Amino acid sequence: MHIFIRRRTVATATFLVAAGLGLTACADTSGEQPVPVAAAPSSSAAPGTVPLDTPDTKPALTLTDQNGNPYDLVKRTAGHPTLLYFGYTHCPDVCPTTMADIALAARKLPSADRADLRVVFVSTDPARDTPLRLRRWLGAIDPSFTGLTGDFAAVQKAARTLGVGISAPVRHKDGTVTVSHGAEVFAFSPKDDRAHLFYTSGTSERRYAADLPKLIKGETP
């Protein structure tokens, strides 16, 4: 897996370099990774949030959810605090760690706030990430999360509206698969359905836990 680092502005690029974030690469070396049954928070130091100079509009995207039903991202998350991430279930490290950290943080919220929060995982490897695969994978992390899969071109177009780089999965002769995608988590406010910030790869569970109550109220941490 190659992780693209987003460069929206010079200030953002400077922040990411200062945080020690560069391009990393890894690959799915097995044909099918086992679905995780438990996860612990990451031990990485939280790079924190990156404010957006111009808030991002939620991408228009309709795909199939983990239950096999159509899911209109804009309509189904309208007016709800929403965290959006592009990744894939066979990812050996970044994707499951990111989802696990968010899940652990979300569990600390009051029940009403937890019910209001939307966490959406969009697959960048739709050929392998079937609805059943997504349901099992997310079910082991947090069954309330939404997993989406479908047309790769549509996913790539939606990601690009947020400045996220995604490349089609590449299968190598030795059976490994390389999937390249941005690793940011976008936080959309319930007040205007726009993202005023994103979280960089490696953000800790502690940081999400501190920020989620504010995000749910429509505040910017």
What does this structure look like?
The protein is α/β, with parallel strands linked by helices. It has one domain (41-167, 181-216): 3-Layer(aba) Sandwich (Glutaredoxin). The protein is built from 7 helices and 11 strands. It has helices at 10-18, 73-77, 94-106, 111-116, 131-139, 152-161, 205-216, and strands at 2-4, 49-57, 62-65, 70-72, 82-87, 118-123, 146-149, 166-171, 177-182, 185-188, 194-199. Strands 2-11-10-5-6-7-3-4 form an 8-stranded mixed β-sheet, with helices on both faces. α3 crosses α7. The two termini are 30 Å apart.
Secondary structure topology:
Blueprint: E1 2-4, H1 10-18, E2 49-57, E3 62-65, E4 70-72, H2 73-77, E5 82-87, H3 94-106, H4 111-116, E6 118-123, H5 131-139, E7 146-149, H6 152-161, E8 166-171, E9 177-182, E10 185-188, E11 194-199, H7 205-216
Helix pairs in contact: 3-7
